[in-house]
Every structure is written in C-alpha cells, then in structure tokens.
Amino acid sequence: MTRSRRNRRSRGGRPGHGSRRAWAPALLAGASLWGLSVPSPAQAAQAATPVDLDHLEARIEAGRFEGAAEAIEGWLAAVGRNAARGDVVRARYLRARLLTDPDSARAELLSVAMDGGSRYGSRAWLRLAQLDLALGEPSRAAADLERLRADHPRSAEAVASWYWTARTFEDRGFLDRACEAWQRGAAEGRRVGAASITLLAEASARGCAPGGPRFAIQVAAFSRRDPAEEVRGQLEAAGFFSRVVEQDGFHRVRLGRFARREAAESLARRLLDAGFEPAIIPVVS
Description:
Elements: H1 2-8, H2 17-29, H3 41-45, H4 53-61, H5 68-78, H6 85-98, H7 102-115, H8 120-134, H9 138-151, H10 156-172, H11 175-192, H12 195-205, E1 214-222, H13 225-237, E2 243-247, E3 250-258, H14 261-273, E4 279-283
Antiparallel strand pairs: 1-3, 1-4, 2-3
C-alpha cells in the first residue's frame, strides 16, 4: 500500500512543498512580507538618496518593511560601487532578509555567508539554517550550523546555533541528540550571558526529562519482515532514517522519537510529501 501510493505521485514535485516555500521568508523575518517586491535596476537607480544603513537595519529589525527593499536597491545602485566591502555585504544581507522568493533569499544568504569577511557572515549562516529548517530541510540546516561554528566560533550566533542544531535533530526524530544540543546551548548561553538563548534551550530541554510523553511515526506494519525491510529501504532511499520494530506479532516500520507532537507532525508532513502514509503514535518514554 505504501509503495503504490508513492508510485502514484510525481517524482518531479512535492505536494505541499510550495506552500512552505511561500511563507518561509516571512516567518524568518518575523513579520508579513506579502506585497513587498524588489524593484528593477532602472527603478533602483531613480530612487531617492539612499538611507543610512544603520537606520535601515533598525527599521527592518523593528518589522517596518515598507520601502525597505527599494531603499537597499537605491543604496547599492548609488553608493555600493564605491562603498567599503563590509557595507556592501551588510546591504546584501539586509536585502536577503526582504526577498520573498526562497531560492533567491537562500542564494543571497549563502553568498554573504561564504564571503567570510564580514560580521554579517555569521548572521547569514544562522538565518540560512533557519530558512532551511522552515523549508523542511533539517539536514541541510544542520550543515549550515556546523559551518557557522567552524567559521565564526566566537560569535553570538555560534552560541545560538546549539539551540537551532537541537531543532534540526528534533525535526528528524533524533531526540537524544536534540537533548544533548539543548543542554549544550543552555550551558553556552549561561557562559556568555546570553539570557534569551539560555531560556529557550532550558525550556526545550525540560521535555527531555524521563517519564515525559513520547511519540514516534509509523508508516507500515506487516506480518512478515521482508516487506517491512523493503519499506525501510524505500525510506532510506528517500533520505529518512527508520527502523523495523517487532511488536504484537507485526513488523512495524517506524521513525524517530519525539517529546513534542508538533515536531512529529513536521516530519509526518515531509513523509506525506514524499509519498508515504505516516501515523503519529504514542510510545513508551
């Protein structure tokens, strides 16, 4: 049954994936970006005198996006050619914050992150990881965060990266590794006095206490092991780690262990998009 459903789906697309791509940049910016567009170069060249980047960044951080994209393009057109390299990288990072197309936003963030010569490199890696996580790509987000720590080990974003690394593990059902990363994030936050990330990591780590609710995802159950192993192989080929559990005379194909049902639902949506039939079930802690 699982195989037949997958065969009915087109391999060229992922149902539901487009909707995530539409709202991911808005989610990361912290406010709605609908209706905001990047002007053409001709429009940018005709823009008014570019605003100060400090003022522009403060507006964006405060969620005041109206006219911000036009202002950045105007700054780049009028000042960027002769501006300091760090200021240009900063402007490109701010532009990435405002792009509504996930592919364009990701390309701009990756370019800034790979530049490596600006304090905005670490911010770009962190936001890139958040974008990938929002797009349902936790493995890619985890790689972004590893690169952030390698390139900017002493940055504030490197401290925050442990919380987000835990989120990438949680999203894949690796609860034990998520708990370790949350604990590391809380310890690093306390060490540098980063109160907000410490509170986030500590709050998440409370779900790691023994005896709490736990969930898993089941995609198939068979009386024989061979078809269960076949489905497990299909999952592996699709990029999902699973296991075959023998219980009550059945061979059950399951994924992950979760402390939060919401995290299990996130993986279940990706499985559904990939053509499987996931069911969230309670399991023993």
